[in-house]
Design brief:
The chain is mainly alpha-helical. It is 34% helix and 5% strand. It has five helices and two strands, in the order ββααααα. A hairpin with a 2-residue loop joins strand 1 (15-18) and strand 2 (21-24). The protein is extended. The termini are far apart.
Amino acid sequence: MRSLVVTQKGEFEAMRRVLNTNVDGGVKVMYALTAIKGVGRRYANLVLKKADIDFSKRAGELSHDELERIVEIIQNPLQYKIPQWFLNRQKDRTSGKYWQLVSNAVDNSLREDLDRMKKVRVHRGLRHDWNLRVRGQHTKTTGRGGRTVGVTKKK
């Protein structure tokens, strides 16, 4: 697979646990962080720059202190001068704050948003409730979900 040079025994870990996610230790740090839900390549790149970590390192080679710095920056991006427009939850409806949601918080907020739309009976919420296309796609012939409609051949 890959050859890794380890200078000291016990320095490399094949799997790391970061923010309730298993991260592959054999992959470069920037791409390994994208395994965390809510962290993409650009955000991972920015976090590593703020944490002052070498991009050529593998995720399994990171020290405990480096991992703590990464987690701290991911969880509190505004304290490290990451711009608001870079975050994935801008101007939250309930609090009005800007957040970077990661791991389970992404799923929870999506579910809460959909429940709110269904409760208020917004058109988008109704479409979600009815399991129909939400974003304006044509539905006359596509997206029938397994139901076949067609012409049968005469004998």
